[in-house]
Each structure stands twice: as C-alpha cells, then as structure tokens.
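New to this. Help decode both lines:
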Amino acid sequence: MKKMVASVAAASIATTLLTGAAGAADAGKVEVKLTIGRGEAVVGGQTLTVKSPVIVDNSTLVPLRVISAAFASEPEWLPDTQGIVLTYGDKTIELAIDSVVSKVNGETRTIPSAPKLIDDTTMVPVRFISETFGADVDFQEADGVQSIVITGSLASAIERAEDAPAIDGDEGMTRIGDSHWGWSMDYPTGLVQDYQALSGEWVYFSDANGEYGIDIEVDATQPKMKTGGLLAALADSIYDGTILDKQLVQSGPAPYAKIVSRSSMGSYMENRLYLKDGVLFWYSFEVYDEANYKNQAKLRVYQDLIDSFELSFDAADEATKDVSTVRDGFVTHKDDVYGLTLELPASWTTANDTSGINFYAADEDLSMYFTMNSLEKGDTLEAWAQRHEKRFAEELLPAYRDIVKLPDTTVDGDRALVRLWSEHTDDSVGWTDSYDVYVIKGDYKYNFTFFYGKDDRAAVRETIDRIVDSIRIDEAAAEENFGYLDDQYGIDLHEKVEFENDTYGYNMTVPAHWTEGYYNYDESVTYEYRGGSLTIEADDTMTYKEAVAEEEEYLEFGMEYDDTMKVVENIDTTFKGVPAKKIVAQSGEGGWLISTLYVFEKNKVVYTIRAEEFQSSRTPENIKRMKDAIDSFTFE
C-alpha cells in the first residue's frame, strides 16, 4: 500500500500544502519551474522536493504531484486498471500507466509518451496535461541547464483546503488518534488535519506554522509480513536523498523499523514502519526546513511528538480526540456532485467513472454501482424496470437468467422498486445476483445495483438493507450540477450507427448500444456488447497468404495448449466478392466460446474480422445483430 499511495496519493497532500503558498505568491495563477536533472520544483514560489523530470520517447515526464500541486487538482487512482483521473475546471483527463491512450472529457487521444511508475513515483507527460488544462509550457536553456516553466491561470480561485477540518484548539484534548485502526499520539497546539481517506486508512496532519507534516497510513493487506521484513520494506519506500539512520527497533510495546533521511532539497524525515496483528502502520514525520531540524530545542519537541505515536487508543480517556470515521463498522460517504450520502462498510473503497460511482468490498464478495439519468416525461418506475428486463432477456438465453420481483422499499422517504436478476455465464463457476433498487427524485432517476454471488444472498442482505436505508439524495445538487443524462437502457436496441475508416477504406454498421473498445486505432477497431465482441483489423504490411498462415499457426498453437479448443470449420470462400478464408473455432468445456474469423484482401490491404460470442449470449437477437454487422462491411 505505502509505495502505491506515496506515488499517486501524495499528490493530494502536495495540493493541500502548496495551494495556499501558490495563492499567496500570486492569487489565481499557475506558476511552476522544474529543472532537468534536479529533484526540486518551485510551485507558486514554494520549493517542493520531487523526483527529477525524465525524458522518455522525446517527451518530458514529471512527477504527478507537481501537476496536482500546480493546478490544485487531486488525482483519483483506479487500482484495478492502474488508471489516473485528473479534473481541472471543465476538463477531465484519464491516463493509464504504460499506456499512450488517454481520454479528455471522454474523447480518446493518443499521447506522445505513456505515464510511467519510476522508482515508486508516478511520472506523467507535462506538456500534454498542462496544455490540456490551458497552461503554457516553455522549455528554456541557460548555461547548459534545461528548465521547464509552466504558466497559466487557475480555473477558479482555490484556497488552502477550506473544507479540511482544523483540529487545533480542541480544548482539553491532549492526544489524538483513530479508535477503529487503534493508534494515537500527542496532540500539540497548531496541528491541522489536512486530509483523511474514507475509512481513515490514510490521514495527513501539518503544523499551522508550516514547520512539519505527519503522514500516517494503515495497510491491512499484508498479513504475511514478519517483523524481520519491516526494515527492508521501509527502505524500499525511500527513493530520494541520503539515509542518516537505519535500524530495527525491537524494544518497547511494538517493534518497528526506523529510517531517518535527508532529502535532496534539505528536508529531514523520520519514517517508521510498525507491525501489529498483521496490520502495517506507516508513520512519517517531515521537517521542511533544515534550520528547524538543526535547532536542538525544536528537534527535542519534534522527537517527543514522534515518540508519542502508539499502536493503542484509549476510548475511556476523555482527553483523547477520536478522528475515526468508522462507526459500528460503517463509514459515511458523501458525494457533493451527485448530492449522494450513504453509509458503507469501513473496508469498502470507491471509484468514480464517467457515468457513476463504483463501491467495492475489500474481499469483492459484494460491490455496488450507482448511476443516474434524466427522467423523461411520462416515465415511471415500472416502465424503467421493464426496459431493463427486456434488454436482459435479449442478452442471455433463458437457461442462463432469472428475474425476481421483490417487495417495494423506500429510499430517502420515496417509494423504490426492487428487482433481483440472476445470471450464469459460460465461464463462471456459479450464479451471480444483481440486486437493483430504482428510485425517482425530482428530475432524475437513481439506480443502485448490488453485485454478489447467488450463494451469498443471506450473508449480504443485512448489509444491503443498511446501505439502502442510509441513502440520502440532495435533489438540488443534481439539478445544479447536471444537465440531460441519457438512459443506457432507454436506447432503442434496434438503432444502428455507421462508422467509416478512411485510412483503410471501409465502413460498417453496428448496433448503437454496442460500446467501442478502449484501445481502438485505425489498424484495429473493436465493438463490445454483453457476451461478445466484434473486431476489424487492417494490415498493409503482409499478404493474404501470410495472414491466413499466421491465423492457422495461432490456432494450432492454441489447440496444443488448450485441449478444449477445436476448429469446427475451415473453408475457402468469398467475402464481398473477394477470396476469403473463414475459420470457426470453439473453446471451453462444451464449446462455450465461439470464435468466427474472416480473412480477405482488397487493394493490398489484408482485413481480418473476428467475432467472439459466448454461447450463453447467443440469443436470436444477438445472433442477428452480429450477422447484420458483419454483412454490413463494405469497401469505400
């Protein structure tokens, strides 16, 4: 946890700490200067210790935390895809580690160089992000020193973390900690809480005078960690500066690893890593100014505060302030954009996408997806649910689906419909439930979908009921923040869209509800739907015979390593008037995955059409849609 959080989430800390300084330097402006080969950045007049910029594929990459601090844009990290989301003004940029494919406000763009994770630091292309956010990037050179200067105007005036709770001044409080995770420390005058993660697994404090910062992170995902591995794990997280002290401390109530280091910019850090009952506690204390660290009086104060950190919380001590967000195993999640507030199990995490919010359980036995769309005139809860049912029936064969209508419930005082959808796909071990709650508030429809294994119904129902009971919706927030949002289940399933590929001279018509693949290029275009996909590839570097030989070789290789794979058809035919090879293969127990392949050549371009279909999704409607899409292929 520590290394990933340090590489991406630290940008959030940098934003909080530096926004105030940037505003003080010149309110409303973006001002950043970096130097190639130097581990520092000057943001709004304040120096920040960072990893040096690097040049990859003739593109300059800089630490994400610099971009975050400069534009006061806290990044969102998507661990499942190694994705990064940055929002600034009316622009949202989606990036992925090691991928040159990005999205700007949902539109796919290719970037010169992919973001990289280098020495546990997330490095991103500076020009692409800065210019997308409306800033100017100037590369300067003087006396052999190369510098990068970013200048622009902030999308809106942003002040230092106004919504961050300032916890200094709690009368009578001498200690502070988290009762859920079980840690506490002394509570000095001037301590400010800048950031806290949803379940409190990460919290950051700073001194109101700007002398030091305290970073505390909890990682319960390393149950096999042993005391002997603490020092090595801590050392792996130190990537900058010089280590001054490094030891494993086994005296006291809990053993811990300790590393004191001086950064390349002159700040001093004492990092500690504790282990208790299989849970790791990362504690970092950073003194920003070397003069303060060298001041023996101040150093003693700092050291006393560091040594006060303990892996215990005394709930009976009225002088200890509890910053825990967890109550009875649940935390309150609030999303101001959607106007949504609800209680979630403390172990859950959240991730926003372009059309809703994903909520995940740590063990993945239960998850929830929330989305909303506009209420059309005359629409009702029953009509809305019926559209879902119709699409569900067209997506899966009867043997693979089941629908149960459950009694109505209430959401925030309004009637809500409940539907239970069960499905079983060919490659899954068992059945999966989708527990859907539908409610209408004002001008919008709200849909909460819980996903879990059918065998877990009894175990998860209590949690689902508690979450649903806790939901509160601020209709005014939705009306203020959103315009028209179309309903994906309101799409006419018979509607089609046409796309043209001017580079390789063909066009095709596909169902409008099919979605474009994430990695679409001129050479390869994919459309996906529930239970299948259609890909069109074009290649002007090989001949028809070479392409056929390559495909047949691939099939032979596949059958050698997968005894369920077999070729059921391999014939010479024609496609749109030109010679073609058609190959149909099946794989999986019982042949549940059906792959149909057409290879042909026109105007010295070899085309390959690949249709992948799950047997469970081969409804009459889906079979016809796939056939119509392939038959629609025409040359320009």
